[in-house]
Amino acid sequence: MKDKALSYRRLFARFATGVAIVLTDEGGEVQGLTVNSLTSASLDPLLLLFCVSRSSRTGDAILRTGRFTVNILNADQENAARHFASRKDTQATFEYGREAGFVWLAHSNAVFHCHLEKSYPGGDHRIIIGSVENMSGPDECKHLLVYHEGHYANLQSKAISNRDEARTS
Fold first, then answer.
1. Cα–Cα distance between 35 and 71 in angstroms, integer?
2. Residues 149 and 63 sit within 8 Å (Cβ to Cβ)
3. CATH (domain of 54)
């Protein structure tokens, strides 16, 4: 089974994803984790979902607080992605926004303020569904941070081909 799991992980790494940080505030302490398993689940109502390891302290904190933010990162935020993806560097500092019990990472490409809608078991992970209560982002998307085959990369925010040209062809 271990060989099958390693093959699964290696092959799935070929799927490039965006990078997001999920944050919650529990008693004034910021808890967070880096995810690339983020999906828009519904437009009516607005729902999103992500997966988190069942052993995650941040996942447990989200279940206790019932609220979290999802922060879609730009290429300049790779250090934050690395920080929240591994053991935390106690020297690392980030600029946060705070309001109404929510905490978010300043300068992200998009921020979604969510209340916990549901949590489901998913093997060695939990599937967390959030009800989006508020959202914000800059007028222009900065270069995106993406993850592919175990590496972070910078992706320009404009499509490779002009969308208007594609519609007229």
1. 10
2. no
3. 2.30.110.10
